[in-house]
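The methods section describes the discrete structure representation at length, but only in general terms. What matters is that the chain and its backbone geometry are given together, residue for residue. For illustration, here is how one protein appears when written out as sequence plus structure tokens:
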Amino acid sequence: MKVYENLDIKLHNTSVCIGKFDGLHKGHRLLINNVTENKDLEPVMFTFKHECNGDSEKFIYTEKEKIKLAEKLGIKHYISLPFSLIKNVSATDFIKDILCEKLDAKNVAVGEDFRFGKERMGDVNLLEKLSKEYGYKLNVFSKLKYKNIIISSTYIRELITDSKIEEAYELLGDKYHFMGEVIEGKKLGRTIGFPTVNVEVCECKLIPKLGAYESRVLIEGDERFYKGITNLGKKPTVGNFNVNLETYIIDFDRNIYGKKIQVFLEKFIRPEMKFSGVEELKKQLDLDIKTVM
């Protein structure tokens, strides 16, 4: 998959879905499936780059996670622009200059409430009106519901924040996960018989309740999923107060420093706890393993 971060683009014969796509949930996948099902057209996702700073909105998936998932779903061209780059482009010019001239769109998929162009003046009615003039087919998708609830990134964020991971999965279509490179920690786990792999948590990543989770781990270059226990927390027992993601992979003893991994949270086990010492921590980890197994 090719990734584009500016408008220096010239594609041919494409099928394009457009939107924010935070979460790439089941509602978003209606659009994605529409653009990937026609094998005669190049599938394109046109979206907006997650602006990541400490005070920004927290995202279900980071930009890197979003790119990886879009590729898994069959997208061949991923266009992710800062909103500032096109905020002053008129709705008509967006259709003419970007959608048609640069992307050569033959098929376009959007949600029913999609707005675009300067001051959000463009909508599905304008897209429909100009479709015949510019020669593309427009597909407009209604909101998808699950148990009479509209599937939205906002609602999914609420579920994740409350650690309702299994419910979030029903709406996402994929397990909520973290992706990153395995870094060296303080190696305390190794000294007590529970070596863990550590992944740095992005500051713009949405964080569920701190605590222990049943998890699955996928390692770069390995197709097997490994069962694990993931602790998301601030390590109150040892005094590290930065949010940390560390996973004990059960029955696993390979050195994977520097490898990229994905940690999929399966189920919330217990909240983060402060123990009186290392021995009490070991006892709890033994109980956690029994719970997972």
Q: What stands out?
A: The chain has two domains: 2-146, 176-292. The longest helix spans residues 278-292.
